[in-house]
Amino acid sequence: MKGDRKRAFNKMWYTQHQWLEYSVSRDSAYCFPCRHFSLPGIQETSFTSSLGYSNWKKAMYKDGGFRGHEKSENHVNAMIAWNEHKKRILTDTSMLNALDKKHQEVVEQNRTYIKTVAEVLFFTATQNISQRGHLETDASTKKGNFLGIMDLIAKHSPLIDKKLKAVGNAKYTSNTIQNEILECLSDMVRESIISEVKENKYFSIIVDETRDLKKKEQLSLVLRYYYNGAVHESFLDFKQATELDAEGLTQKIIQCLETYGLEYRSNLVGQGYDGASVMSGRHSGVAARIKAKTNHAFYVHCNAHCLNLVLVDSTKSVPESETFFCLLQKLYVYMSGSYVHQKWLSVQKEMYQGAPRELQRLSDTRWASRYQACKNIKDRLPAVLRVLHDIDVENRGERSVEARGLLAQLDLTFIGTLVIFSKVLGEAKFLADMLQSTSLDLAKAVDLVEAFQDTLQDLRSDSSFDEIWKDTVDTGKQCNVAVETVVKRPQKISSRLSGSIVESTVGQRRCKEGDMELFRSGIFFPILDCLSGEMQRRFSKSNCSIMQGIQALNPKSRNFLDEETIFSFARIYECDTDDIKHELHQVRRVLERKFQTGIELSSLLEFTIFLEPFKEVFYQLFRLCCIAVALPVSSASCERSFSALKLIKTHLRTTMTDDRLSNLGVLSIEVRRAKCLDLDDFVRRFASHHRNRRIQLF
């Protein structure tokens, strides 16, 4: 006690004695190093006992208290051990920090390297060029595109050069690692597509099949769906079709949908195939089998394919048109000969300005593309006739004989047929190009088909024929082809043969010079009539409830928002008609206010985009619109994927596996989506999937 004040522990003692520690509960002081770092068997003191030191009066004595304890031998030894311990901790922490820093540096270098490898593979995949070479050893001068590009990058990057020259097998350039990287990249693209499909819920499948250079039947699967204000047709996969019957193809398609977690039983609303019987069979085709497994998978025959069949069948129905296209092909083959082709180019340079044109080969699968062949012949017909005439007068054996035969057939009938098909195929090509658009919906497709049918009807008029005949005569005069009939002296008939002579050929419909009426009735009308009849037969599905319902959602249709039509459409897809009735009433009022502002809707897609902000209010109507725009129009996206397939699997790359082909196809076809991939996300995915770890990425 100091006066009436009780003595206590002073916190300032901590700064004077670093070994000191204090217990509040026991009001006692202790020595930390003596308690923890004393040698075994040392006698206990007040600073190490459980009671501790609490004689505060003598705490700061010179020879006692804290100072006296500091002079003891046991305390000195404990302090030495404590200081050594602290030094050891600091040293170990520095080593750990140094190791961790080195680890992070190695990881960052490895991540940069693996990203570079992935980017090179991605570049070669999107450019449809091969990755591997025939001989990929270090001594080889042609290692392939992948290793060649890596070596080129190594010249400008010491890090890449160091990794590629490292001893061992951690270069990550083998074909196995390439397959793993391509699989990771393509899976990221597929997951992006699947997430969009699942967000919108409703989708259609478009499937077609082709044979690759390895004689394998490859099945192309494309998904069509509405997402974020646009219609998407996204390529998903190439699958080898080992069984080509309806059951085998159906199982392959269903298996693919299940692999990617797509709910096809309730959300698959449409199917798009070509007209092959195995796909479109009414009772046991692929479309019928998938329809039996799902609730609403409506089958749509590829409209572009239907248009092609219209042109094929109508052409074969008119002998003159079939002969015309055979003659076009003969001209192409003849003009492609080395000697004739050189003469063809020189004559064009002499007669026309600009670059010479080439005659087009006729396509058997894309008849609308024959428009360009007709156009080139029509524009360069004088040059064609001159080439044939020059070769004819050369008298060079078989070449001159063929020229003479072709020249004899390029008469007024040929020119007239050429003018007709130049006009008709020009309209058909526009329709074919529109039908192959990924953003086109069935409502717009019906409008375009009807517009083409109206065009055919307009062509079948006297005024249109007069224009075509005038163009035919003008072209004939320009080419020095006879356009007027030469009056000949009538043949004198023997009186003994009177009544037995037929002066005209039986069944001959080829018109003579200037015989306009025979051309009109024998060629012009039959071609247009066959086209119109085939169009009516091939495109007659517009009368079904689904097509009528889609038209009722088209703002330009006469039946726009017609209740009965939409109700029939809604029942097919199990929508609540009571809710739709109320929604139709409200949406009409909203549209009236929108139209008053001068804004109009022109297509089903625009109407769907208009409803999207109000999809919670117009739930059933927006659902029907999403279904309508998701229904396929054509299988052109599959055809485009086959073009990519031919670029990927060339004659020198036929040994690639089906998985590698599919992954390369996804990156090549969905290139815009693939370019948006996050490479950091790729590294995380690759690190988690790649089990044989020889490179640290985390």
TrEMBL record:
Q: Which residue intervals define the domain TTF-type in the entry?
A: 5-106
Q: Could you state a single Gene Ontology molecular function term? A: protein dimerization activity
Q: What is this protein called?
A: Zinc finger MYM-type protein 1
**What species is this protein from?**
Anabarilius grahami (Kanglang fish)
